[in-house]
Automatic annotation (TrEMBL):
InterPro entries associated with the record: Apo-CII, ApoC-II_dom_sf
A molecular function (GO) term: phospholipase activator activity
Residues making up the signal peptide according to the UniProt record: 1-20
Protein name: Apolipoprotein C-II
The family this protein is said to belong to: Belongs to the apolipoprotein C2 family.
Encoding gene, per UniProt annotation: apoc2
Gene Ontology CC terms: chylomicron; high-density lipoprotein particle; low-density lipoprotein particle; very-low-density lipoprotein particle
Length: 97
């Protein structure tokens, strides 16, 4: 799911950057038809959605979830090994004394 989102965002950014290389023609506002206005509105909404998705991706990267998960695993492993060692010592002393 995350890969699909990243690919979608990258394709959208590529499409928007490729479109920016076009040279706009000089058009009077009166010549713009309804379809052109609708197209411009849809493009602006699309650009807003792409920017929002990019912001969300940046926020997710900013959380550093992967690093937190690794730290949690390491700390949990250390704690478990300590308590298992204590339990092993207790069992040894119970059965051998």
């Amino acid at each position: 799911m995350n890969k699909l989102l990243v690919i979608t965002v990258l394709v959208a950014l590529f499409a928007l950057s490729a479109e920016s290389f076009r040279v706009p023609r000089q058009v009077d506002e009166e010549e713009q038809g309804t379809i052109t206005k609708i197209t411009d509105t849809v493009k602006s909404y699309y650009a807003g959605a792409v920017n929002t998705a990019s912001d969300y991706l940046e926020q997710i990267k900013g959380l550093k979830l992967e690093e937190k998960a690794k730290n949690l695993y390491t700390e949990t492993s250390n704690i478990m090994s300590t308590y298992l060692g204590i339990a092993q010592d207790q069992l040894y002393h119970i059965f051998h004394h």
